[in-house]
Amino acid sequence: MPPIRTSIKSQKAPPEGFEDIEPTLIEFKNKMKDAENASHEGKKKYEMSWPIFQISHQRSRYIYDLYYEKEAISRQLYDWLLKNQYADAMLIAKWKKQGYEKLCCNRCIQTKETNFRSTCICRVPKTNLKENENIQCISCGCRGCSSGD
Q: CA-to-CA distance for 78 and 131, rounded, in angstroms?
């Protein structure tokens, strides 16, 4: 019989530099709570999760920019943030690839969830759309995340 664990696994302390970005991460956390507790009256079923996707995207982009663009945080802190799910590691992995620099969420490139086994409408460059045609993604509310725009 396996031994019974009596202590809760303690979380490792954050690396050096976390104190500098902690206020911004707390702001994102508070925005997320507000979005989760917001009223859903008058919204369509698929529109209810849009603010959550947008805040998650903003938080991931903030951490991505700190590490890759500004080089303001260490690799150790970046790895710790990804491990503790402060950012979406799969989305950041896509941002590093050519053509996915402006990707809004991973659901927009998953072909399994669409009717015609294609990517989302927000991935179509605006130059290929009709003039004055407004598009909006059903899964996240994005109005266009194609890198060719």
A: 42
